[in-house]
Specification:
Elements lengths: L19 H8 L9 E7 L15 H9 L7 H11 L4 E3 L7 H17 L8 E5 L3 H15 L8 E3 L6 H10 L2 E4 L1 H8 L7 H5 L1 E6 L7 H20 L5 E5 L6 H9 L4 E3 L9 E6 L3 E5 L5 E3 L2 H14 L4 E5 L2 H18 L1 H4 L2 E4 L5 H13 L4 E4 L14 E5 L5 H8 L9 E6 L4 H8 L2 H4 L13 H14 L2 E2 L3 H4 L3 H10 L3 E4 L2 E4 L19 E5 L5 E5 L1 H7 L5 E4 L2 E9 L4 E6 L4 E22 L2 E21 L5 E6 L5 E11 L2 H6 L4 H18 L1 H4 L6 E6 L9 E6 L7 H7 L1 H14 L24 H13 L4 H4 L22
Parallel strand pairs: 2-7, 2-8, 3-5, 3-6, 4-5, 6-7, 9-16, 12-14, 12-15, 13-14, 15-16, 20-24
Antiparallel strand pairs: 1-9, 10-11, 17-19, 18-19, 20-21, 22-23, 23-24, 25-26, 26-27, 26-28, 28-30, 29-30
Helix pairs in contact: 2-4, 3-4, 7-9, 9-18, 11-12, 18-20, 23-26, 23-27, 26-27
Length: 815
């Protein structure tokens, strides 16, 4: 729990901690290190402004706050508490470590304490929702410690997939502050609402922490889960107040209203103090190695981040290195441990990896070690991006742009939470977007965080929640306003599909199976694949179903807590991958093929002779082989074929076509057409996150010299979520500026024939072949000559809502 002053902070006074500028100077002191820093941003410290708690807060709660070392609240904390007590739903949108947890916890505890004294009934209850299980567990520990002086009047408990079954009945009957996640609310609590009736009947507050994470398709699902919760609460006679918190939200009241369906008051004037933040942009150097097509290769962000984490650990600077993939977290941890062992064997034990897919007991042990300071350095996925209380961190290394400015600031905000100065270093990957950002710092530091946009009316989202709601309680006409205007058109379709049946004045669920199982709110596409050690039968962890084909196929190299395993078999029917420990001198990378067909064109805008289009498509993807790459050099050692079933996706896409005349003007011959289109596709995907608030790994692309549906050379960029996620639509609206930036990124790159900084893609299923850099520049030049003005290019869909698909946190989030 974020506090104003901490009684459990490390004994070292913040004033005596290493100055962030001095730490950066030491990192940059090695050979050629200083030249890797492309920009340094200094955020000055800020003084705090105090206030007093509302007089309606119970004296016992105020005393507990003071006992924790907090004499007076910050002004925004007192303001938020006042609104909560008035019955106003409120969103606290202040910076990291600004005490948002206390802002909502004080009125919640006061209300629970008051309810505990009621002569009859259970008393008031509260529900806390976190996007990850780790955050809920961390908050529960803090609440227990904080509310200890209040005795048994406050009974907090975590209720998620890790909760032992023998504890669940006690929680349902007696806990009055239940901490869970939207997944468990969707699959566990709401379908079993009769067993939760006394809790729901007394529900006074619903806390939604890190609410900016609920965006795009995931956020749209959570919005409908919250509407189902409100409907059941109303049936039991309750109307809870919603308290939301986020350190990185743009237009927080608008986003919170869309998420909850309720009017929400905004508290965004941050009155907390802040230490100095030094933020460095870091570009790894070119190496003597050459990659595909002889392209120059930069040192990887993973290797560079491992070096920085090692150096910080040797200096005794408590640090976390954020990395985008689970494998990357494992690699950074292993490399750092090996290098630290050469300096001092005891230091190697003070660095570890933290990621999703670990077993619950492994996660809990790591969280305790992080919190206590037993670990000095940590390599983590965004499982640790959110508000887990890691006191005393002095530095954050971010290995690769995390996809959004909101995530970037969340990760940077993990350091300096005790009031001391902090250092953040963004290490660029060899990627068009990262390269652009480290050389254009204004795109990071002079721009606000992205809007948290979502679309609860997306029919692919709404339909399964209408079924789930009908299974919980028959749907009536009075319920339809709660779920939005799209219900009217969807209900007949669900009835025709024999999922719902109209009886008198209500719709009923008709199937025997659970309606809540119709959808996975995180879009992970089925149950996770269990990774099992073949010789012992020991469960090592899990892999999301959507990633199984490319990460745990037969022959894949799998890393888990510093150990290397080879996958011997993948059973898709039983969702099990059997592995055995090994030490191969290579890593593996899956290769796939993708085809796309146009289902419907919603809008078509002339771009000179060419066309810019937006509509529905069907994408068919199949993992067909994998490459073995030498660990140190990345040299390809061989390719092995795979026999895995194809997967289909109906989604939304933006695409553009060019004519023969345009190809002639661009001097594109048939021999280089495929490579020119392919290069333009790769670079446009790499730059789209700058305009559509998405991650390149959430979007896909296909380029075809003669597409059977358009009968022209065509480049497609599509959403990686069923039904679409809003970024292809955003790309359509900003196509002129997006493709102009794409052309500029390719043309300004210093390489000769294309490299990972411009046109090569780390996820290309064709091994970045063919690619033609100069052809792509000429092609985009001719295309952009015909681009209309931005207003005209927006076309007929300009008024449609869009979504922000940066995606849910990677961490241990399943119910």
């Amino acid at each position: 729990m974020a506090k104003n002053h901490r009684s459990d902070r490390p004994p070292t006074d913040p004033a005596s901690r290493p100055a962030p500028g001095a730490v950066l100077d030491r990192l940059a002191s090695g050979p050629s290190r200083a030249s890797r820093i492309t920009h340094t941003e200094h955020l000055p410290p800020r003084e705090g402004r105090h206030a007093v708690w509302p007089d309606r807060i119970r004296a016992e709660v105020v005393a507990a706050v003071r006992a924790a070392g907090i004499e007076h609240p910050w002004a925004h904390q007192a303001d938020a508490a006042e609104h909560a007590l008035d019955g106003d739903s409120v969103v606290v949108a202040t910076g990291t470590a600004s005490g948002k947890s206390l802002a909502y916890l004080v009125p919640v505890l006061s209300t629970l304490l008051e309810g505990a004294e009621a002569p009859n009934g259970r008393g008031a209850t509260a529900l806390y929702l976190a996007p990850t299980k780790a955050l809920a567990a961390d908050q529960c520990r803090s609440v227990k410690k904080f509310s200890h002086p209040l005795g048994h009047s406050v009974r907090p408990a975590v209720y998620d997939g890790d909760t032992p079954f023998e504890e669940r009945e006690w929680i349902r009957q007696y806990a009055n502050y239940v901490l869970t996640n939207p997944d468990m609310l969707h699959r566990g609590i709401l379908p079993s609402h009769p067993r939760w009736s006394s809790f729901l009947k007394s529900l006074r507050y619903v806390v939604i922490d890190e609410c900016h994470t609920y965006r795009g398709v995931f956020g749209s699902h959570v919005a409908q889960v919250l509407r189902r919760l409100r409907r059941l609460c109303a049936r039991y006679g309750a109307s809870p107040v919603f308290l939301l918190a986020s350190a990185t939200a743009a237009e927080p009241a608008v986003a919170a209203r869309r998420l909850t369906g309720l009017p929400v008051v905004e508290v965004a004037d941050d009155a907390s103090p802040r230490g100095e933040l030094v933020f460095a942009l870091w570009e790894p150097p070119l190496t003597e190695l050459h990659g595909e097509k002889g392209a120059p290769v930069r040192r990887t962000a993973t290797a560079e981040a491992a070096d920085l984490l090692t150096d910080l650990t040797v200096q005794g600077v408590r640090s976390v290195a954020f990395v985008r993939s689970r494998r990357g977290a494992e690699l950074i941890s292993v490399i750092s441990q090996e290098r630290l062992a050469e300096v001092d064997r005891s230091l190697a034990r003070r660095v570890a990896a933290y990621r999703g897919g670990y077993l619950p007991e492994e996660r809990r042990a790591l969280e305790r070690a992080i919190h206590s300071g037993e670990l000095l350095g940590l390599a983590a996925t965004n499982a640790l991006e959110l508000g887990i209380d890691i006191s005393g961190l002095d530095a954050v290394v971010i290995a690769g742009y995390p996809g959004t400015r909101a995530s970037l600031w969340q990760q940077a905000g993990r350091a300096g939470r005790s009031g001391q100065g902090a250092l953040a270093v963004l290490v660029a990957r060899d990627d068009p977007l990262d390269t652009f950002l480290v050389h254009h710092p204004e795109a990071l530091f002079d721009q606000p965080v992205e809007s948290t946009v979502l679309d609860p009316d997306n029919p692919y989202v709404l339909a399964p929640h209408l079924c789930a709601a009908a299974a919980e309680l028959p749907l009536t006409d009075e319920d339809l306003d709660l779920f939005g205007p799209a219900c009217e058109g969807l209900l007949p379709q669900l009835e025709a599909a024999k999922l719902l049946r109209r009886r008198t004045r209500a719709w009923h669920w008709t199937r025997r199976e659970r309606a809540a199982d119709l959808t996975d709110i995180r879009g992970e596409g089925g149950r996770p694949v269990q990774v099992v050690e073949e010789g012992t039968g020991r469960l090592l962890g899990t892999v999301d179903a959507g990633a199984a084909h490319s990460t745990v196929h037969e022959g894949a190299v799998h890393l888990h807590q510093g150990r290397t395993y080879l996958v011997r078999s993948l059973d898709l029917e039983d969702s099990v991958a059997l592995v055995e420990e090994a030490a191969p001198p290579y890593s593996t990378v899956a290769r796939d093929t993708t085809s796309i067909s146009v289902l419907e064109t919603d809008v078509e805008v002339p771009w000179g002779d060419g066309r810019l289009c937006y509509g529905s498509v069907e994408v068919t993807n199949q993992v067909v082989s994998f490459l073995r790459r030498r660990l140190i050099t990345g040299e390809v050692l061989g390719e092995t074929k795979l026999d895995l079933p194809p997967r289909t996706l109906r989604t939304r896409a933006v695409w553009w076509t060019v004519t023969e005349d345009q190809l002639d003007r661009a001097r594109i011959s048939p021999e280089i057409l495929g490579g020119s289109l392919h290069a333009a596709e790769h670079a446009s995907i790499g730059l789209l996150p700058l305009f559509a608030t998405c991650d390149r790994w959430d979007i896909g692309g296909v380029s075809i010299p003669l597409h059977p549906d358009t009968l022209l050379p065509t480049v497609f960029v599509y959403d990686g979520h069923p039904g679409g996620a809003g970024f292809a639509e955003r790309a359509f609206h900003t196509a002129r500026t997006w493709l102009t930036a794409t052309r500029q990124a390719i043309a300004s790159c210093e390489c000769d024939a294309g490299c990972p900084s411009c046109i090569q893609s780390p996820k290309c299923g064709n091994g970045n072949d063919p690619l033609h850099k100069r052809g792509a520049v000429r092609l985009l030049t001719v295309l952009l000559e015909g681009a209309p003005e931005a207003k005209e290019a927006a076309g007929e869909v300009a008024d449609r809502p869009t979504e922000d698909p940066a995606g849910p946190p990677e961490g241990p989030h399943a119910p």
